[in-house]
Specification:
The complex is a heterotrimer of chains A (307), B (347) and C (277). Chain B is α/β, with parallel strands linked by helices. Chain B is built from 12 helices and 12 strands. The chains are: A mainly alpha (307), B alpha/beta (347), C alpha/beta (277). The interface between B and C is large, with 49 and 45 residues.
Chain lengths: 307, 347, 277
Amino acid sequence: MSAVGGAPPEIGGPPSTTEVDVESRTPLRFAAVGGAFRGVFSANASLLTGAIILGTLILIGLLAPVISPYDPVKQEIDQTLAAPGASGHLLGTDQLGRDTLSRLIYGARNDILVALGAVLLPFIIGTIIGVVAGYRGGWADSLLVGIVDVIIAFPILVLLIALVFVLGPGVRTIIIAVAVIDWVVYARLARTSARREAAMEYVMAAQVGGIPTWRILVRHIIPNLISQSIVYAMSDAVLVILFITTLGYLGLGIPPPAPDWGTMIAEAQPYFNNQWWLAVIPGVAIIITALGLSLIADGLAQKLDSR
Amino acid sequence: MNVPDTLTQGNKDALDDKGALLSVRNLRIEVGTDGESFEVVTGATLAARRGEVVGVVGESGSGKSLTLRAIAGLLPQGVTVGAGEVHVGDIDVTKADSAALRRLRGGVVGMIFQEPMTALNPTMRIGPQIAEAARAHSRASRSEAKARAIELLGQMGFTEAERRYRLYPHELSGGMRQRVVIAIALAGNPSLLLCDEPTTALDATVTMKVLNLIVGLAADLDIGIVLVTHDLGVAARICDRIVVMYAGRMVEEGPSEELLRRPRHPYTLALLQAVPTRDSTIDDLIAIRGTPPTAGEVPEGCPFAPRCPLAQPECLQPVHLIEVGPGRTSACRRHELLEYPEGEVDG
Amino acid sequence: MADNILVAKDLQVVFGGGRDIFMRPKPTFEALNGIDFKVARGEAFALVGESGAGKSTAARCVVGVQRPTAGTITFDGAPLDPRRDRAQRRAIQMVFQDPQGSLNPRMTVGAMLSELLRRNEICASKQQARERSIELMSMVGMPEAALDRRPRSFSGGQRQRIGIARALAVEPTFLVADEPVSALDVSIQASILILLKRLQRELGLTMLFISHDLAVVKQLCDRVAVMCDGEIVEEGHVDTVLTDPHEEFTKRLLAATTDLPQLDAKMRELLQPEGSA
């Protein structure tokens, strides 16, 4: 750093890198940055682990037809209730002689992919509605808040199950049910963030600069709030997976004989005493999936925090 | 590293005086955890006596607020005193345990901050907040504490103190809230009042009132006041002595009027010439080129050298505070450039 | 007779009002109580006052993000409405107060300028927008490299410069500056004020300057209106108002202004050495 005085103007030369305001930011920040350095590291660990888990599961689901050793719905009456490892069935067979491993793999395909799809719709709808309402304020905003408060007051799982019951089981119903109920949380999240961003001066600057409203929303407001929503979506996906598998358990989910972890558990109940693995294995799969999603959510949230 | 411990005559008087209140010597404050830590304040030395107002002036990044917090023993997590001493009365704040510090704060040292709204409990009426502070530092009964609170409100300039006792913070304006904050700070009868930018969040006319109040306290209650501010105008109004800080170091000290009229450090001079005043015009203003160094990136030698119009290669050597006159110190090697006898002003 | 480019008449803004869900009237707040002011072409006019005085509200009306409850504003003879045509919108631009919040944290400086230039049809292609952006940056003393960075890598003073470049991007003739230096460190304020003055002179801009600080106003402006509680209490040439204030409030405001001893010429010379340092 050159030190001698001279006469170059105050400007010129590269702008200084992040200016740390010692007074107001360093003391708290440096403890935080130190922690965050470890935090980004452990956030990366969290994020990385979760991403690996989920990535693997999704891959399994996508490649199901290729890697599944058997046809998941093919029944082999002479090989029912085989123990894991017996006669070419790595995880044994169920009461109808269907290979557990194959059912598990196809179950991943059904449950995870449907869950991710079921989260996408409310995410998109809810975020758009929330952003518009938050930005415009006024009666649209008050109306939204009212609707959100009413829906949230209900126990969501009960609502969802009731809806599926009324509409009849099936993948489409599940997606519709989740979309209809779940959008409100995304809307509320987006609305709060949109309100906060809309009050910022850079938005006013864009308005004064003649940027049309739609572009302000898309290019300025949404990018500044989307990461929070994504983090939330990850944890929401856990709930949706649980929802789908619960439906399966109750017999309201993806109709048999299509494999679904929840259905597998339900069907395994009568055999729990002797062939406990039939119920436990799909349960473990659900837990691992939920864990993967939670780790991702956690990791993302930590990364956002330290910024 | 031992830096010569230079005390100005002003500081020496303050310390010899039986009324010596505050003595800070060679304070070094560090930020960071084991392994990677760096200094944010280096070699801060100052003293304050009862009845006087000492101003610590600097911009963001100068370390002035941290110095103040160190005096109160209120450094945040991760920020520690690396070296030096802070004596308030007989107590060495840097070595005191938390019980001693708790007794110190409020009872001997009062402190007020920039944002009056966050300093007050919004769900509690202002009177009881003052009374609570009074009881925390004395054996006063409830009624005695309430009387003290009402007395303080009166001293702070509140008319109808009895009635105002029952107001909530949100029913007061910013200036009034700040006065309540001051009352709380005084409730424990401290002998030293530390003020961290107390008027920055207030309007100009309210600032005047609060400043007048503060300077009145020094005289009426015979307490010492250390006022941290970035605003030279504020310091000019009420401070008896001013200490100027830059990038964590003290660069100059002296009696306020003399320092402002005849600065002995280029930074002070540059600052004075960059501040818009009632009498200056745009062509008078001279901007200081460059930006202050970020914490941890302070260069060797004089921290101001990269931006200093008077810098020479010798300024890359480490600098210390030098006594440059009665009660004046400066950390500039070339301070003689800034001296010339009174009266020798060019026409 | 002065050529007044902006004339505000009886400008009134009332917040709140209406009824809540139970049909009870909601409280109102009068931010502007029907004020009149004129800004002559090429001059720098200041609205000065404390917080809540209404000066920012007036600025917002001029710039078009606040609809007045009553009153009119005319610009160059034509009435000014929040919904304005492109010509009027481009002619009046604003520099904001908060260096933190006034730039989109997720957009690079270049993208921000490019968007403005192309949306307003000043530049047709990315290439043109880039060239023009480089020019704008150098007008405010920032290097080309700044275009590819995000706001978080700049200091407060640099962000304000970028904000000024943004305001100038659409080639306005009238610039509203809302407390542009209040959030900056003291030593940086001077450079921004000097920049604004230079730009005003070089580009022939008319300026509406909002501030709470009479000293700052004195540096930059020709005429000033002192506001209190939504009304203008005193108005006149800056020198006159500062040396001979009439109203009590103006006097109080003046008394609170930064008052430091004037440094003599020899000291100033040290800061600006003629020839070699």
